[in-house]
Amino acid sequence: MLDPVPDAVAALVEASIADNTPRAYRSDLAHFAAWGGTLPSEPALVASYLAAHAETLSVATLVRRIATISKAHEATGLPNPCQSEIVRATLRGVKRTRPTRGEAFTAGGPVPGPGRNGRGREVRV
Prior knowledge:
By secondary structure, this protein is mainly alpha-helical. The protein is built from 5 helices and 2 strands.
């Protein structure tokens, strides 16, 4: 059984969360559930969720979704699958295989932006 939380503590905990955070949590959990995710989840299921969306969602979105799934488990006292090595390694793999912010991949490597050469230096015409 959970210990009762004093009102002052509950108010501070509520104030620690931005107004949009609960909405983001609901959206993240709904996406996970629509894919077939469940609470509680096994580490292999969460890692499979990452792999299934590695090419379609940004790294930042996947990191936030894993944080949400982790919080949902911890808030309900369930074992947290997101702390497992398979989930952590899968997320590291996603980060290593995805282009970084502002970088596009082609067969020949990053595409220079307008007015720049392949090393990011300005090209004077």
